[in-house]
Fold Late blight resistance protein homolog R1A-4.
Amino acid sequence: MGIPGWDVIDFFLHKLPIGGAFVRESISDWKLLRLIWEATHKLMRDEHAERVLLNMGFKIEAAAQEIDRELILTDNNDNNKMKLSHSLVDDEILQDYYKKACNVIEEIGEAVEHLLVLSGRSSCQLQSPSDVSFWLKFLATLAGIVASMRWGEPVDALVAELRLIRNYMEDVFRDLDFPAAAAAGASGDDVNIINDFVTRVASVVVRIAIHAFKYQIYCRKTNDRIKEEERIKLMKPLVDLQHEIDPTNPRFMEFHLHFLVSLHKIGVKPDFCFRYCNYVAPRVRVGDLGGNYYLVIHELLKLLVFTKLEEKEDDQTMPIFFAEFHTVLMETGSLKLRRQNVEPRLSELRINVGLLQTELFLKGMLHRNIQGITFQIKDLLNRAKDDVYWMTKELIKCLEKHPHGKAEYEAEYGNKTAALIQQMDHKVASLHQLFEAKKITEPTVRNSILLLLLNIVAFKAEALFKKLSLENSRAANSMAYRKDQIALLARLNLFTLLCNQLKKETQDMDVIFPQTETFDAGMTGPIINMITPSSQLLDKQNHIRTELRELSPQFPFSDIPKTCMPGFMDFLVRNLKELLKYDPASIEQVRNYIKEIHVHFDSLGSFLMKVSESDIDGNPEVKVLGVRAANIAYKIEYVIDSIESDAQWQHIFLVYDLLEELRIVNKQASSIQLTTSDARVLSSKHIIQVPPNMISRAAINEMVVDLIDEEQYVIDQLIKGSLRRGIVSIIGMPGIGKTTLAWKVFNHPYVMDHFHCRAWCTVSQVYEKRELLLEILRGILGLTDEIRLMTNEDLQLKLHQCLLRNRFLIVMDDVWDAGVWNELRNSLPEDANGTRILITSRLRDVALQIEPDSDPHSLRLLSEDESWNLLVGKVFHGEGCPEELSLVGKEIAKKCKGLPLAVVAISGLLQRIEKSSESWGKIAKSLIAEVMEDPKARCMEILELSYKHLPRYLKPCFLYLGVFLEDKDIPISKLIRLWLAEGFIHDSELKSLECIAEGYLMELISRSLVEISKKKSNGEVKTCRLHDLLRDFCHLKAKEENFFKLITRSDEPYASFPSSDFVPSGLGTRSIIFFPSTDSEPRCPYDISFICRNFKLLRTLDFEMINIGITFPVKIGLLVHLRYLAVSGYMRSIPQSIANLRKLETFVVKGLRGQVVLPDNMWSMARLRHLHVNMHVVFKLGDKEFGGCCELGNLVSFSRLSLSCAEDTENIVKRLPNLRKLKCIFFHPRDSSKNCGQFPKLDSLAHLVSLNVFYFGRAITSEFVLPPNLRELTLSNFHLPWSHISTIGRLPNLEVLKLRLGAFEGLIWEMEEEQFKELKFLKLDDLNICRWNATCDHLPKLERLVLQNCKDLEEIPNDFADIGTLELIEVHWCRQSAEESAKRIREATGDIKVLISSSYSR
């Protein structure tokens, strides 16, 4: 079709013969929509917006083609001419098509609105006059359309606003030289600021147009029958949007002033300043206040703008003057609404205006003096003299006419103000006289002006403080009182900034105004010198601060950690940046403070990153400064978060007070010269990355040297001796290697071949019988959903049945009480076949209680030679120790007192330091010889030494491991997400935060402080553990450094909660992590309402092991600082209030029943990175959301999403553009025939590396459409023929493949060439495969093969023995012939390890 769809629909609507107001209104709708469409195209420039706009364009073209095809005739001679075909259709058909056109109009309007919700995507560039013309035309047209709607007073004000801003922008941009602006923009950001201003205005007016459009449509649908309260509700978005571009809105005004400065810098004539004043002034013109007052405001505004234009980039005082001017505007505006008692408030307002005008005048003198190239000091003083004369004359006249109000305070304030301003006049005249006589220099002039300015600032601060002191308690709660409090703090801050400026000019803070004989000339009345030396001013201001501190309540700063965490500084800087970007109304009063705080911490963070341990040792000042900076950082974060939640004036004073301290610390840091070169500093951004595949569990747990005698003794006890069920015990002190020896024996080939089945369970001090039963069953049979849902009684029976007539080995590690044996013994059958139970315990008495007739084996300490051999092996990894280190190394090994854990811990430290006799000698000396002979105490001393030598960024990460339960695996994914939420991880442009955190963990592992307990299929660490002694150390150190607090139900006063009146609370608490005391599967709901009331600043809240009931607590939405939230319960849905948690990064839902429904508004949670629901989650979108721009752009992992195999799935996954890991359920709706047999297209997930899909529904007939970067794939329940696997085999990067629960069906798998070239891990689980035809060439890089529950598989291809990379074959619960084939492959190579779990008796 040659004619655009827009023109076709436009022609159709205009030519309709139906007639009537309804059609005319629809034409108006179409005109407005087309205007919005064009504006949106100019605004939205990112890829996602282009895609959405393109999709909407397709809809327009489709509608237009249908109308064109059926209703419109094109002129044969001119394809661009159209006419309506009345002969082809009747009125009913025309009416039908007319309705369709209206539906398209409404649908597009909805889509554009959603697209513009995220205005951060907008980008408007003015490159030519035509760009300006478009927006001017848009504003004029929009104003006309809105005016025609006649909605009453709010809309009249909106129309006036649109016309004013349109005229103003036309005036301003008339003088803009676009080529010159572009050239200026090449060397700076000024053009960008101009474009940003236009973008901001354009985005608001487009949204105004959309809401006007929506309102129009709604009125038409309801025949304009709208109740007044409903009309007000519908109008509210328009009123709010109007406020966004109101020139007296402080945010818009500040933004506007930056725009004016940029215009000034690129050379636009300064006439625009007067235009701006004319634009703003009508908002504050008040007839009752008199024309003179209007002129004063107008002149004040001009003075503010010109002063702003001359300011230095690092000047922090202008935002304070700007805020005060805004207060004047607001106060003036409030007087418009008053009909009575205006004069008293007006008098005070006139006084404040006079003082502000005087301050701005002096400030302008300082700026112009700085810009000395333009102004000579003589000309400046001459001009100042004339200006001050005029200014003082007008101000004094104003104050004499309205000297004061009725209050005694105002009378005194007015009289003193008049005297002060008059003295300022004469002081400037004095400066002129002295400079002309060459009695003072330019620096003296400048310092004197600063002193005059300081006097006015101090005068206003004292007056405000006195006013606050006179207010009664009732007034103390008023809005006016609160404003005065904030104004006082601003004054104090301004005074400090000016003092700092004066310090830069002169080291002598006792600045006195120069004396002159003509000082008294022209003065009337008694002369009282109000100009005070700077030192006296400083004393007065300090007194006010002291008084305010005494009035402020004490905050829980005693709870602040003592650990210095460089990562936290980086975390705070990122959060402050995000807060300023989000810019909530709650921080209005402290926004400029936060901006300055952000700058200071950014600088401090960079400084502290360069500090090395040698800097700290050589310069104690550096350590003190680091601790002080961290202390301020914790306090400031607490206070700013409190302001964001519920601002109080005391919070604002604390921000100001802490900012004062921060300025001092930052100045101290800038004066310190670090001795260590940057090249030698180990930054957390450049940490040594230890590849996971270089660290095995065997290496980490090899706490003992090959103690063949000990190992052989235990093996003999297990495989020899009596046939009756026997119990073998290993006992010894913590850290001696009991668990490591048991683990080596458990995996010894003799033991593996001797027992039919084996299982390992860790008991610990606190255990639960159910968990132990499940852990044993996992090793014997594997866990299914059916087993997990069994009762304890059924689990005992199941275990007994599985073990019956099998010779089994059960390891019970870390037993503290004989009761656990009594609870499990009946589940372990006695078949007189050589079954064994292996127990490890610290306590000999426990072993004897379990088996009274036994002789528990006490594991001995290492000899000095064994300690030395272990140390050498750990430090040098099989290479010999250099001769120069041998002597001191043996001394260190000897001091470990034979405890393997101590040797391993000190080895981890020695690996990281310089391998020289001097460095090792320092370590040896630090192990004090007089310290106790007790090996455990010696081990704790070594752990202290290892902790001391940890890099500062690793210390909080290590201590945090102590939070987790004893002898429990710690999931790495959860640990890393908690580290991120707590702010331990430094940001980096090169790597994701998760990757950096993984590097931290691997470094702790390489230092032998953390043990790997499980690995993933790809070789990465899945879970880790902390040795009991290390955990005890973390608890001691955490208590010492106030890092975390461990609370149990037996601790007072928590023991009496909730039966007593005591309710836990913690204003300074940032994290709460719950662990169950007895019940691992929480059945009884817990009342957590007190948390939402009493712990409002939480960053981390972990309820994953706590049942919170059948409904998700809505009040959790009040905890707006949460970054990590995990819940468990019977809830079916998550409420809309979850979207209030805009900072949330990790959200975990452990549903205890079926499906969980997430609200649609979760798509607005832009910072969400990890979303996990253990059962399955429904995430639906309506049609309008599909056309919108909502997406979870930061989400990197998501489970377990339930999706239908239809178009909805593709639309949803497109809104997860950066997803890396996805676990989901695909299903075909029962009543849907659409996309029958189609596998959803997932190729849009370009970053996806891990995919796990469970399928429900009819057979898939199409090919898989998978992302090309996929590295891990798990498929379950697809029941596909083996011929479909070729698509998967061609994935170029696939390394891990798991086929489960009938993913593929067929007796024979015939593998093909040129597939699975990169596959390293293959798991076949519960498949009906019988014969596997493959050679070593089909899986050339396979490292690990797992076969599980493949009952029909005859054998593993013998040729797999020739796969050079194959390391491990696991065969669990398969037929005996498959097990035998695995053994043959092991025997053929001698290198491949084989693990077998049998489900039958041998």
Observations:
- The first strand starts at residue 72 and ends at 74.
